[in-house]
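wait is this the right file?? whatever heres the structure
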């Protein structure tokens, strides 16, 4: 009985230290899925309501909405890395100041066909 417990513990320890494997690929410890490399770009349509918001992708200003931007995409349609898209609305009353809305995406998010920003929130547009 003790040898079975010891053998089981050894197997669990070796599997835990070795990481998960699929085929010949080893997944890094603590990941939920293998990280995919970018396979290309996808065009994402960005709109704002009201129109004219200043749009930035990962801190780089790309223009005023509505516009389309190219973002990296994996072969399965996910973001290969974290991506932040922000919309900055100018208030009609200048004493109120600008309003910024941040849309953050990660490797577990599918790339949407579009994103609509309002001064309060955003929502992705799926096909």
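ok assuming it is, sequence goes like this
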């Amino acid at each position: 009985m003790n040898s079975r417990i010891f053998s089981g513990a050894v197997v669990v320890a070796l599997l835990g230290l070795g990481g998960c494997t699929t085929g010949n690929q080893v997944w890094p410890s603590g990941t939920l899925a293998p990280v995919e490399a970018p396979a290309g770009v996808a065009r994402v349509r960005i709109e704002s309501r009201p129109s004219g918001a200043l749009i930035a992708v990962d801190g780089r200003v790309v223009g005023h909405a509505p516009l389309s931007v190219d973002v990296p995409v994996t072969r399965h349609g996910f973001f290969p890395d974290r991506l932040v898209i922000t919309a900055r609305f100018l208030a009609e009353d200048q004493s109120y100041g600008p309003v910024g809305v941040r849309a953050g995406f990660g490797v577990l998010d599918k790339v949407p066909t579009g994103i609509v920003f309002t001064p309060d929130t955003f929502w992705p547009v799926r096909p």
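The chain has two domains: 1-34, 40-125. so i think its the right one actually
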